[in-house]
Every structure is written in structure tokens, then in C-alpha cells.
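FAQ: What does the model actually see?

It sees only this:
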Amino acid sequence: MQYRNIKRAVLELIDQYSTAGEVISPAYNHQSDTIQKIPGLINQALLDIRTGPYPERNVCRLEHGETLSNGWKQHILPGDFWRLCSGGVRKLSGDGPQLTNEYQLLGGRTLLTPEGTYLVEYFHYPEQLPDSPADEYEFGESPEAVRIACLYAAACLVRTEDEFAYTTLSNEYEARLSRLTPAFVAETRAVQDVYGF
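And it is asked to produce this:
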């Protein structure tokens, strides 16, 4: 999704995109101030969405970590790492990826593992818009999360000027946020029991 579409959606929600059929110039009546605030508000909303009701998963491969004195490897997790998914560490072997609990997560971004190659599934922080994105800037967030973030940005922009519009937009933001649910991920594998069946 291009930033121009995000900016337009926010401005349309607060009825500041066009007047008399013409697009409002950034030089008109504080329009440029409003436009400057949009990226930061979108970023804040996406952070609330991705670290709240709608986390998004990512996977990274770990194999060449720093060797510690006890033979374990120290891996620094990616910069967008937020939290480890339940059952999110798998050791790669000849039998394919195997769930493992032989790891330690330290300090929120350092993972200690025995020797080997691992796949780590984690929830990640959202992509953030730059302070002044070009209209052509391609934003990789999901459309449903961006639509909800636009409602948040619009509500914040009218908060001090129009209580009715603020309340309407804020309520719509909260309603859509409450309906946003992550997709369930089914995982199938053979079940092993203590009896060898």
C-alpha cells in the first residue's frame, strides 16, 4: 500500500482532503501541519495493534552465533523481535524441524542454544513509517491493520477541535480493533507417548 493512500484515507476521515471538488493544498490553513502528524500517529496505532490484539508472526534462522565457554551459542535476535511464539524454537535435523526447549532467552533479544541450526518463530514489531514519507513510499503492513490505524490517526487529529467527530472516530477505531483477531495456525505432527505407540 502506498503512503499516498494512507494519507488520503486519514484526510478524508476528517473531511480535509478536498473542498468544492479540488484537493486541498498543503499550504492551506494548517494542512501541512496535519499532514506532518499522520506518520507518527499511524506508527503509534500500528504498535498498539501489533503488540495487542493482532500480533504478526515472523521466522528467522539461527546458525552462526558466538560460541560461549560452555559450548552454547549466543544469537542476537532480529531488530523487529517482540516476543517468542509459544513453541517457537525448532532445531533443524535430518528428520526436519523438531520442537525443542533447549534454549534460554536472555534480556529480551539474546537466545542461547546448543550447537546446531534453529528456526525461531516470533511476534514482531510493526514496520514504521519514516517521519516524512514520499507519496510513493510502499508500506508493507496489512490493509486491515492500516485501515484501523487511519481511524486512530483521524481521531487524534480532531481531538481538540471537534468532540463529536473525535468520539465517532474513536468509537469506530475501538469497535474495529475489538473485531480484529489473528488467524489460527494449525500445527500437525505425530504424537509420541511414553508407551511407544
